Structure formats: structure tokens, C-alpha cells
Amino acid sequence: MTTARCSCGAVTLSLPGPSPLIVACHCIDCQRRTGAPFGVGAFYSADAVIVSGTPKEFTRAAASGGKVQSYFCTDCGSTVYWKSGNLPAFIGVAVGAIADANYPAPVRSVFEQSKHAWVEIGVSGVEHFQQSSAHKNPGVSD
Q1: Phi, psi values for residue 107, rounded to 5°
Q2: Which SS3 state, helix, strand or coil, does residue 91 take?
């Protein structure tokens, strides 16, 4: 099992280990959600994730249409996970909330049209998309 949690530990997720689907997203919404030039999410089957604590939900329009619900801690403000209304079978978990330096690298980099010029996702074998990769595998980007 792998654990993800907010900064204060009030919201935790129990995960079935590393996900094979890890996505770096450069969309403006992920930049604003993370306060960083991009976000990195590990995608899991919603049935495989156990949430403990009481996160607050924030709903926004997604860059590809539809809605995304982000879940964050009401005490420390950390966003721990999110769901897409169009893809309810998946949960995206912030890789930073997993806090494991040996966690696998992204296999996709999406919304590179808004990627900062100095950012380079140079992992061998990573797929690059100017927009969403949802046509490639629904459930992996908003």
C-alpha cells in the first residue's frame, strides 16, 4: 500500500501501490491549483482508493470541457486528489502528496501548449501532447 496525505495529515488516501499512469499536466488550472508550473497526478481506479478525513470540494470547469472536483484539506489547504465528472471511475492523486522520491516518473505530459518554456519533461518514453490525452486513454487528464 501507498499513502498520500495533506501537509497536516488530516486528509489521507490509502492507495494500492504505484500507479502505472502518471501524468504531468501544464494546463493553467493545474498551475493555479498547485502554485507551480505544472501538476503531476497518479491515476487510480476510484474503487481502489480509500479516503480518510473530511476534505472540502472545489468544482471548476475543465480545460477539455466538463467539470473537475478538487479535494483539499480545510486545515492546511493542500490539494490531495481530484475527480473528473466525465470520468467517475478514476481519481487523480497529487504525486507530491505521496511524497516518495522513488515514485515512478510521468508517462505523459499534457497541455504542453501552456508549458513554461524552461520546463522539460525529458523522461525516456514519455508521451507529449499539446492538449489533453483523453482520446488516448480517457480518465487521465481534464
Answers
A1: -105, -15
A2: strand
Cell numbers describing residue 74: 480545510
What's the rounded Cα separation, in Å, for the pair 110 and 26? 6
Pairing outcome for strands 108-110 and 127-128: parallel
Do the beta carbons of residue 78 and residue 39 sit within 8 Å?
no
Residues with Cβ < 8 Å from 71, sequence gap 6 or more?
11, 51, 55, 56, 57, 58, 79, 80, 81, 82, 83
- Laid out side by side, the sheet with 12-15 consists of 2-5, 12-15, 50-52
**Torsion angle in degrees (nearest 10) through CA of 119, 78, 12, 69:** -80
Report whether pLDDT(137) > 80.
no
- Which residues are CB-neighbours of 62 under 8 A, at least 6 positions away? 29, 68, 84, 86, 142
pLDDT tens by residue, 33-60: 999 999 999 999 999 999 999 999 999 9
For residue 13, the model assigns a pLDDT of: 98
CA-wise closest residue to 111 among 126, 128, 94: 128
